[in-house]
Write a structure and sequence with these properties.
single chain; alpha+beta; Butyryl-CoA Dehydrogenase, subunit A, domain 3; 7-stranded mixed beta sheet; two-stranded antiparallel sheet; 19 helices; 11 strands; globular; flavin adenine dinucleotide binding; Acyl-CoA_Oxase/DH_mid-dom; oxidoreductase
Length: about 600
């Protein structure tokens, strides 16, 4: 059975060398205890937990799946014991406020933990991952009484959390939400309705589950302006930090899914369930975006994770499996055939996986620094600071979620391809990675929705192109500083061209959209993917610049590591980055080639 190895060397390179996290943490109040020694110890221990506890449950959990009996969901064998170890280790409260029992470390530490857990066993990581979103929502929008009631048990990991948005008649279009919330004399509400696709909706890992639910008050306006947000616990709190009577919320069925079968995806029925309003009436969607943005960043990990895992397993296989001779001559003459690693096409697939995993990880860590500042702004009550970094992160969030999950799917499929026929067989685990990864482009908003959010809201509507101008200025300033070094000059020159092109494309799409509003929809996907490839190019240039500096100035003994970084950056620029130009061409294509056929004309008529 293949195993996961935490990529600590690459993580530390990004943290310490590329993004200078030690200095970053020194600038944060929450970073006081995030010293290099402490961070290294946390990452090492988390890596051990993922390798020894979570990774061995990855395939067995998929084989067994979750079960629903007598209205209660049970997780696969070993999950409860693993979760208990997770709680005992204090992992849930790593980045939670100390006031509620957390360790008060920066928010980025939670993302680093989540990356390793998600790569080792994505299904398992979803249970505590959903709880983090619930914690953030209650922390930012809950009353003092709600915080006192729920944040302690959630931080401890004794209680879990979910987000309940989707209903049978609506997914992304939340204006169609029908779940009703009837006010009660005691200030609570009775919620009635059905939610579907609810991850961690029910399970046996925690003693209580706190559902964050979108519902509509009786006199609410129609559409998204009339949605409120509620806390609906599985068991009503008894006032002493423990669970009381059973609430009227139940799992009606488990979804039969393509992948992540060890993660309980539930149909949840609210039958007059007692709920408590969180945030202002009819502003539930605004409050829920706290949860959704958290989830979207987390989902971006499911682009990086499968690329890393599939690459690790495919690389090992390519070194061991022998087939034919290399076209340039025998590489292992004493063997019956050469290892797959010696074939150029296999190298192409492996390097694509490596470039996606390591480039995507850099994108995540870049965004995590912004998240630290945003969270600190909220914690300090500094609205301007919070909004400033929320805007910066808001621009990157759809790119992270949409682009990285699309590439994660590509990397997972390449892993199957390296294995050949053996990749299609369940025992090797490669096809499971593909099945588990496929959902990542769908939940928390499909790639198309992320693209519309990026182009339609963040770029055109909210900033009139200003978000692109601000980000590309940062990229261009970096590039200009690295034109003189012969190792980094090719990357810098290409980045300068791309920043100019990105701004020009933005203006051209903006002008075209004034004449044809469908342009926003027809160009959005290609705009997102183009933005993703350029952003990843920036991240690879930053990694290459640090590697070049270390090689030129004798940083340490890791010469092979630094040379590999530069070589992978060259591969990305020469083999993968050219895809951006295809997207540039496609986004400027007229909508007429999409709209000229009537719906009936698109039907098969053979």
């Amino acid at each position: 059975m293949p195993v996961y190895k935490a990529p600590l060397r690459d993580m530390n390179f990004l943290l310490n060398d590329v993004f200078e996290y030690p200095k970053h943490y020194e600038s944060l109040k929450s970073g006081e205890n995030a010293t290099p020694d402490i961070v290294d110890a946390i990452l090492t221990e988390c890596g051990r937990f993922c390798e020894e506890v979570l990774s061995p449950l990855y395939q067995s959990g998929d084989e067994e799946g979750c079960k629903l009996e007598n209205g209660e969901v049970t997780t696969p064998k070993g999950y409860k014991e693993a979760y208990d170890q997770y709680v005992m280790g204090g992992w849930q409260g790593l980045s939670a406020p100390e006031d509620f029992g957390g360790q008060g470390l920066p928010a980025s530490m939670g993302l680093l933990k989540q990356e390793m857990m998600g790569t080792a066993n994505w299904s398992f990581s979803m249970y505590p991952g959903l709880s983090m979103g619930a914690m953030n929502t209650i922390y930012l929008h809950g009353s003092e009484e709600q915080k006192a009631t729920y944040l302690g048990p959630l931080t401890e990991g004794r209680w879990g959390g979910t987000m309940c948005l989707t209903e049978p008649q609506c997914g992304t279009d939340l204006g169609q939400v029908k779940t009703k919330a009837e006010p009660q004399a005691d200030g609570s509400y009775k919620l009635t309705g059905t939610k579907i696709f609810i991850s961690s909706g029910d399970h046996d890992l925690t003693e209580n589950i706190v559902h964050i639910v979108l519902a509509r008050l009786p006199d609410a306006p129609k559409g998204t302006r009339g949605i409120s947000l509620f806390i609906v616990p599985k068991f009503l709190p008894d006032g002493n930090g423990s669970v009381g009577e059973r609430n009227g919320v139940n799992c009606g069925s488990l979804e039969k899914k393509m992948g992540i079968k060890a993660s309980a995806t539930c149909v949840m029925n609210f039958d007059g369930a007692t709920g408590f309003l969180i945030g202002p009436e009819n502003e539930g969607l605004e409050c829920m975006f706290t949860f959704m943005n958290t989830a979207r960043i987390g989902t971006a990990i499911q682009g990086v994770g499968p690329a890393e895992l599939s690459y690790q397993w495919a690389l090992d296989y390519a070194k061991e499996r022998r087939s034919m001779r290399a076209l340039s001559g025998k590489k292992e003459p004493e063997q019956v055939a050469d290892s797959l690693i010696h074939h150029a096409d296999v190298r192409r697939m492996l390097l694509t996986q490596k470039a996606i995993a390591e480039g995507g990880r850099a994108m995540l860590y870049y965004a995590a620094r912004l998240a630290d500042h945003m969270v600190e702004g909220h914690a300090e009550g500094d609205t301007k600071k919070a909004e400033k970094y929320d805007d910066k992160l808001g621009f990157l969030t759809p790119i992270l979620k949409g682009f990285l999950t699309e590439l994660g799917n590509e990397a997972a499929n390449l892993g199957v391809q390296v294995f050949g026929g053996h990749g299609y067989i369940r025992e090797h685990g490669m096809e499971q990675i593909v099945r588990d990864t496929r959902i990542a482009t769908l939940y928390e908003g499909t790639t198309g929705i992320q693209a519309l959010d990026l182009l339609g809201r963040k770029v055109l509507l909210m900033t009139q192109g200003g978000a692109v101008r601000e980000f590309t200025l940062k990229v261009a300033n970096f590039a200009r500083k690295h034109l003189a070094n012969k190792r980094t000059r090719p990357f810098a020159v290409e980045l300068l061209k791309l920043t100019a092109q990105w701004n020009l494309l933005t203006v051209r799409v903006m002008l075209a959209a004034r004449k044809d509003r469908d342009v926003v929809s027809s160009a959005a996907y290609d705009f997102l993917m183009y933005s993703g490839y350029v952003t990843m190019a920036y991240m690879w240039a930053r990694q290459a610049a640090v590697a070049a500096d270390r090689l030129d100035n004798g940083g340490d003994e890791s010469e092979a590591f630094y040379n590999a970084k530069i070589a992978t950056a060259e591969f990305y620029y020469e083999r993968l980055l050219p895809r951006a130009q295809t997207h540039a061409t496609s986004m400027l294509s007229p909508t007429s080639n999409l709209m000229q056929l009537d719906a009936d004309d698109m039907a098969f008529t053979g």
